[in-house]
Amino acid sequence: MLATTRFQQPGFDADGGGEGRALYLVASACFRDLSEAIRVSLIRFLLQRNAITGELALDALDSYRRSRIPIGRLAMRENLLGLGSCIHVLDLQLEDLPSASRRLFGEIAVGLGYLSQAQVGFLLDRQRAEGPTLPSILLELGGGEAEHLQDELEAYGRSRGPTRRI
Known about the structure:
Blueprint: E1 4-7, E2 23-26, H1 36-48, H2 54-67, H3 71-77, H4 83-95, H5 105-111, H6 117-130, H7 134-141, H8 146-159
Antiparallel strand pairs: 1-2
């Protein structure tokens, strides 16, 4: 089932009727569960249409990455992983420097038998659900261009066709 995220702009009423309008974006497919490739695709689309500046794109991506709760922290919070196991995985990640070749936390934890693939999937779903979406960050940082940016985000959603979980 697809979730819907509502973006409210000042002066718009909550139910979308009357003098205002509520802005809805399908979130589960291409706005809530943005994979790295889709995030890059969205940013590229907005840059090509001059809906955002390069500086805004970088600021939004940085903010998005900082807003993600680390998988290890989530695993400990959900009592799926102890502190010692979490530190062991982090140590192995550090051995994978430079970061371009760094393995993912979940990949290492599964390889060591600390977590199952299903548990990592659950944690990734929690990570996505608990943080802001990239479009919401763009709208927050976009300032006075929010309505134009919202129109471009909706155009991006339409250009992707039928939504699917990523």
